[in-house]
């Protein structure tokens, strides 16, 4: 556990970067510090490994005040990942990753063996081990940065905007990878970002920092989205927070309806009413797009099927959340969201109105539970 107790940092010149921060970070949790630039996130994180000394207040790791610990030993017990990986340019990937185990006393040989294992763990094969950082893509460099931080198997991982220099697609891959790693490794992770979407995707808990280095809210991401502590947090999490909050709600109660499907060969034979749609599926049952009466007429007139169908919307994988269900419905030209199984085969359709009805049901039952709890507490 990492605890901040009234920690304040005022730099020379009077800038208060972190103002009276009190915060407990449970062991094995994924905690994200998020907020606009200059809000003190990095400064707060650096108090943990003593790169910054608080002007007042205390930071404890497992109950021990870090001010009383040897800084080098403290840092060897904490992986540290920064933007672009922070790799040493003149060392190979393998030696970059082996650095910390060597510093911790391992022989070079054993450290390299460890490094190979960790590289594999973050999705990089041995084929990249002998390259230099400049010979890697941005995403690969970032993975090496994570591997290096994990190489000595530290219980704590500090990550400062590690994915902000890579493009959105690679970034999403790295986020998925990070979640997978965390589910296997159960480290205590503190992650800094200014991107609320990244924070909500990754964090078990998120700490929202505001101007002047003041912590505004510290809660689970669904709580921050549903109940921002103040106007600053509401504005920061964005106007579509209600929609994004749906991603924390299960869609298992949303009804899946049978939908009309046609194969590419049978499009021309379909009879559709004026407002009717059919889903065109491949021979193995995957969705290809929607066709209406006008599309059917085109095919009968000799058009290729591909030219007659409207691209489908996003898909709703069975078991996914309300956000994916609603998005599938509202992005579909027919208004029916296509539900698919793990193999991508069509299993039916979902309706936007029913997704919203499902949301209302969930809220009603939450309210009822809350009332029961409050009533129960009042009686005691
Ligand atoms: N070494 C320093 N000396 C003086 N002021 C500093 C120093 N480091 C940071 N600051 C100031 O402290 C404030 C908080 O900076 P910090 O880097 O912690 O914010 P941040 O939330 O991490 O922002 P960013 O996302 O831009 O990195 C800023 O006003 C910054 O200019």
TrEMBL record:
Any Pfam family matching the protein: ABC_tran
EC numbers on record: 7.6.2.9
Enzyme class of the recorded protein, top EC level: translocase
InterPro entries in the cross-refs: AAA+_ATPase, ABC_transporter-like_ATP-bd, ABC_transporter-like_CS, P-loop_NTPase
Chain intervals for the UniProt region annotation (Disordered): 361-380
Coiled coil residues, start to end: none
Residues annotated as domain ABC transporter: 2-236
SMART domains: AAA
One Gene Ontology molecular-function label: ATP binding
Keyword set, alphabetical order: ATP-binding, Nucleotide-binding, Transport
Family the UniProt entry places it in: Belongs to the ABC transporter superfamily.
Name of this protein: ABC-type quaternary amine transporter
